[in-house]
Amino acid sequence: MYFFFAMLPPILWGSTYAAVGLFLTDLTPFWVSVYRALPAGILLLIIFRRWPGAHIWRLMVLGVLNIGLFFICLMVAAYRIPGSVAGTLSATLPLQLLLVQWLILGRKPSSRSLIAALVGLTGVMLLLDPRFDLDMVGVVAALSATSLVVVVTLLMEHWRSDDIIGAATWQLIFGGLFLLPVAYFWEGAPTLPSLAQLPGIAWLSLMNTAFAYVMFVYAIKMVGPNMFGIFTFLNPLTAVTLGIFFLDEVLSVWQWLGVIFVLSSLLIVKLSPGAMRNLISTKLKGKKQVNS
After folding, report:
1. Taking Cα atoms as reference points, which of 92, 76, 88 lies closest to residue 27?
2. Which terminus of the chain faces fewer neighbouring Cβ atoms within 10 Å, N or C?
3. What end-to-end distance do the CA atoms of the chain give, in Å?
4. If 0-12 CB within 10 Å is exposed, 13-18 middle and 19+ buried, where does residue 258 land?
5. Minimal CA–CA distance to 7: which of 227, 292, 242?
6. Over the stretch 215-243, which tens digit does the pLDDT of each residue have?
7. Residues in CB range of 93: below 8 A, 6 or more apart
8. What element of type H or E holds 127?
9. Spans of all domains in the chain
């Protein structure tokens, strides 16, 4: 059961592109970002009643980066390139983090990490072959969204918070408030969602954001961050699967090979022998608790 809950967040996050493609194509990306962030933040505030505390300015900065700008880039990618491609590009997160830590922070990567970087880079090159006529604005947006996660990850190493739910709540609220004037300036007055579009908005805001983040917090507590990292490959895998079966997306043989390379690089980084031992140990521990 532990592993089921740990798998839910990346699966839900991977459904973002399908939700947009199935329900929200007539709305605009900036306002969809607003509809996703603010209701989720307000709902978490009502349920958990957490307040920002002394480091409110940190939450504002993280809200702008981790929610405001990230959601904009993510939604622009969702509207301009196939979800299967966008989801696979999001799997370059460990590789981007490795490069930033190496080039800027001077943390020398291991041989395993270097191999993963080369495999992942090869996959991205296959996926973005110019012959496939992808929208480069969407590609840049997808990679930028992942880069923002890298920046936020490094910031949060220094700005640790014991109240993760509270931090998530106020990041969503501050990010949503940042998005309001940006969306109005860039896209004009909002178009209210129709009844046919409400399932997509509800899925993105309630399940994909509020519920998924709560599950993420509890997954980290139940299986640990290293174990949870192994399951992140389910994010692009979900995006690719939903894109093919529900949005009729078609990938060439070379693009499929690129997807395999990127997912393989993610597994090389995350699935070390030590992680496998911990995974088996945690699973056996869970079975003992169930049987006792």
Report:
1. 76
2. C
3. 15
4. buried
5. 227
6. 887 777 777 666 676 677 788 888 988 99
7. 146, 149, 150, 232
8. helix 111-127
9. 2-291
